[in-house]
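Entry 14. Structure prediction run on the chain below.
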Amino acid sequence: MSTPRAATLAAIAWLLCSAAAAASPDDPLLLEIWINGHSDHIVATVAKRGGELWAKASDLQAAGVKVMPQEKTTDGLVAVTSLSGVTAKIVDTEQKLEIAAVKNRLAPQVFDLRAIPPQTQSTSAYGFIGAYNLAATVDNLGHLGNTSGIGAELGGTFFSPWATLTGNGIFEDDPGFSQATRLDTTLEFDQPGSLRAWLIGDAISGNLDWSRPVRFAGFQVATDFTLRPDLVTMPLPAFFGDAAVPSTVDVFVNAARVFETGMDQGPFEIDNIPVVTGSGQASIVVRDALGQETAVQLPYFASDALLQKGLSAYDFDAGFLRREYGINSFDYADPLAMGTWRYGLTNYLTIETHAEASQDTQLVGAGMAFFLGAYGVAQFDAAQSTSDQNGQRRGGTLVSASVSSQWRQFGAFGSVVATSGHYDDIASLDALPPPKLQFQAGGNVNLGHAGSLGIAWINIERDGETPSRLASASYSLSLADRWYFGTTGFYDCVNKVWAAELFLSIALDNGALAQASVRTGTHDDEVQAGVIKGADPDGGFGYRLTAATGDLDIDEAEATWIGPHGSIDAGLSSVNGQLSGRVLATGAVVAMDGGVYATQVPNGAVALVHAGEPGARIYRENREVAVADDDGDALITNLQPYAENRISVDPQDYKMTAILDTTQKTAVPRRRSGVIVDLAPIAHHPAVVVLAFADGTAPQPGSRVALDDGGAPLVVGRGGEIFFGDLDRPQHGAVQLGHGICRFSVSPPAVPKTDTIPTLGPVLCTKDPAT
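Output returned:
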């Protein structure tokens, strides 16, 4: 017997069939596009007109069919069946458009290996970091009063969520001389979202390879790529291939696999293969279902002299030139303005320009850096300057060219900077003028098991000065797992001076390094031997013992200790029997969130971790870095600014009565700042409540419990037990029974004297007579 529901369904089906039969064959259809037996689940509107199948070009391209601009109509439609190399038909029963296309009609499958995670908002608390570097020296321990001195380098940073204010200075007190000098004072604002940094105060100007930076005080706004450590600015290599059948592809860079995926038949493209600067070789291995393998070698050369296509960088500076930095605290002179701009015109060509202007000197220059394929990168620049000297205007020109290349085991570099006329820049106001000619060239070759060899030549010429022409060469060889041999030498072609050195080092079992060297040359000879063990930067002891003989007899002993609150370095030196000594102390003081903490000099940023448990171990990237103090807090340093730093604790370090909301949090601090990471337990009053009826029986396990305060529902366990994660106040609730409810009330337990979870009850659960 048919039911009313079945009759309704039959009527609907009859209406749909009637509508389909009555539909015009030219009405548009919604069909799934299949290309060569594969679908990316693209649904398109397909219409029949005059015997042709028409679809939107954008839908076909999304499905993987290549469409030329001339094949589209003005409204973006394409006659699918008229495309060369394409056949198409509609399969009504499966509501799909089947397309068979030749290879040159298929759009390549694109695999982008540059995985840029979504940017996480950086944060900062309020606080202060004070760093110190203290030194005490005695040039002659036999005459302490006349040869002893002290010095200090002090710096401080006030940080906040919106800016940092940094200042530093040096102090020196030697016999007959005492001076304190301010170095830099800078207010900094960072905008990671726009890769922009703003500086007010002392700064260093931006520059290109051929221009010279200067110190100034004023205003700077510049692109700062360090605000996004995950961002790769240089172009990365790409590969184009073709798979005859569905296959898998693996990408190796210098023998390390960096990517693997499956793909369909047809052309494919692998973009942004992750490499580091310099040369290397990428291997792309394609393997089909039958195990047939094809490997392609892709030599590459990557350089940060190039910017990715469309990427730009700029630096604008305005203020007053600073003179005698490190000697005078406030010596500011000529007003200046400087600007630098770079732009990736293509992945193979980056254009750049730089300009400077002061009261007496102006210059402008431009150039380019272009890709030489797997052979390297070349750069060309030119600049023109005008300056006023004693009331006379004069001009000059600069030309710069450089090339850096690496091919397999061979490498070469060369650069030349030449000036003509009276070329001047702003740096000339507080330093030597630019050289008339500066030429550098060199090369290296990796000989594999036979070692590596490098040579270099430097030639510098200035007006009115003796030119410098230096040639150097070096050779190194790993003799075994722990033995390392090398030799280096140079020759001064102008002064006819030469020097050469042979050295040997051996890694010892205790982590120390034994070294020996022989140096000879025009003016002196020396033989030296020693043992060095570096201190662990995470904390530990290191030492250095050396002895040398030659024109001078020198013996040195140095010990270094690095602790959680700072480091101490002490050394003794004897030169021809005269004994001298020094002691260095470095560290920092951090004040934030009401506490003051002594620590090592922080690099990057710091984090104050509220662990909430004395002695709890603190981990960064799953590596133990600190232990919580008596207040349950720990300060950790060396966090990477503007990057995700995973900080965690171990639940085993906490009492059973502690409830942790999470054991790990991610901190993204700003530069030279501090963040607060709260991992303290959210609850310290867990309890087990045992419910019972008046007759001594208990509610059924699995019964749901609703609390009157709207908290998360609980579940009754065996024997009427209910677990409260944090019973910090009186609670009232109701238990859902099979027929009705029962109600109960419970008060917080007393603080337990042991690390146990208290059990309360039996607590009466009174059945509601209304149910």
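The helical segments are 4-22, 57-63, 144-147.
Filed with the rest of this week's runs.
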